[in-house]
Amino acid sequence: MYSDIIGRLSDEPILAAFFSISMNIAAAITGFLPSAFITAGTVAVFNLKMGLILLIIGEAAGAIISFVLYRKGITKLTSSFPQLKNNKFLSKLQNAEGSDSFFMVILLRVLPFVPSGAVTLAATYSKMRLLPFGIASTIGKIPALFIEAYAVSHALKLRMELQMAIILLAAFIVLFYYLWKKYKLN
Asked: How is the protein disposed in the membrane (predicted)?
């Protein structure tokens, strides 16, 4: 199924580019959808260089659109991100102004363990304006996207058996972590 989608999109590069950017926007708006599959598909259809450009465009557009939407519906989203109240970096961002908020967004985007949706939501609570947020968010995502796209491009060159082993290992780790968290909390 995956190879069918990739094959169809490979035949239509403009459609594939639009699809990749749209999926990145959707992932940013929801705040919790993983973008690794979007990265894998984009790098599989395009080469690393063009895929990275499309991923950066998609991430930037997604951050800006979600920032605008979050600002409009901020009271409804507060309960969706309880980590805002518990994360000291996100709390600092809420209270930051000017260049402090700009550099905080860059830092938080670079850190892999901070959810993108939480960074965007925290920025909407701050006094930060849209243009500085968009620029800082894009600058901060570039290193992470480069590493992710580079790793994916090399993983796609592996034999199918190794790719499946990596996917199964990752799924096992996620399942183990979920079960460990669930039973540790009880």
From this structure: Multi-pass membrane protein
- Please, which residues have CB within 8 angstroms of residue 162's CB and are 6 or more apart in sequence? none
Distances (CA, A) of 186 to 82, 174, 180, 182, 183: 19, 19, 10, 7, 5
Question: Does pTM top 0.85 for this prediction?
Answer: no
CB atoms within 10 A of CB 149: 23
Q: Which of 23, 25, 51 has the alpha carbon at shortest distance from 38?
A: 23
What angle do helix axes 36-45 and 13-30 make, rounded to 10 degrees?
Answer: 170
**C-alpha span between 60 and 54 (Å, rounded):** 10
Query: String of b and e for 130-142 (b: at least 16 CB within 10 Å)?
Result: eeebbebbbbbbb
- Separation of alpha carbons 110 and 53, rounded Å: 17
1-36 pLDDT tens trace: 444 666 677 788 888 899 889 999 998 888 777 777
